[in-house]
Amino acid sequence: MKNIVMCISIIFIYPNVMAKSTWNVIPIVNLDAVKNPIKCGYLYESSLNKIVLKLEKFVVNNHVITSFSVKNPDIKKQSSVRLLTKTVDTSKNFKTQSNKKGKYTATANLEKSDTGGKLFYELAIFGGVLKINNLEYQLPSRLPRATSALYLNCAGDLIRPDNEIK
Length: 166
Description:
Elements: H1 2-22, E1 24-31, E2 37-46, E3 51-60, E4 63-71, E5 81-84, H2 90-93, E6 96-100, E7 103-109, H3 115-126, E8 128-132, E9 135-139, H4 145-158
Antiparallel strand pairs: 1-2, 2-3, 3-4, 4-7, 5-8, 6-7, 8-9
């Protein structure tokens, strides 16, 4: 019985341990000259898989834009790239997309729905899956409090009307 419990524990814990060990996640907090936030987000880097994933929020023309970009040598012009969390699928919400050799970028105005907030919340708490063509990369769950707190503080200040990028 003890062996069965141990085996089941390893099956459920191991994928998340692997995700944490292959990804470095840092908050993105870009400030202007007077220290107002102009971009907020998360930067995921996996040197093992040669992937840089960047999720950012910024204000343009009084709208909060969410950007999702992936750099990886396996990305081609026709590549399929998407990010999945518990309830968000970027292929459904990010309609403005650009594929080049080695880089995928997508943007969306998600401010009229709760999708933008859910995306960042679910990534921080539950992690997610990055899909590049037929390959899946598990993103780490339970980001450190310092990482998520810096993002949340930045994002809260970002939506103030005087923080618009002109």
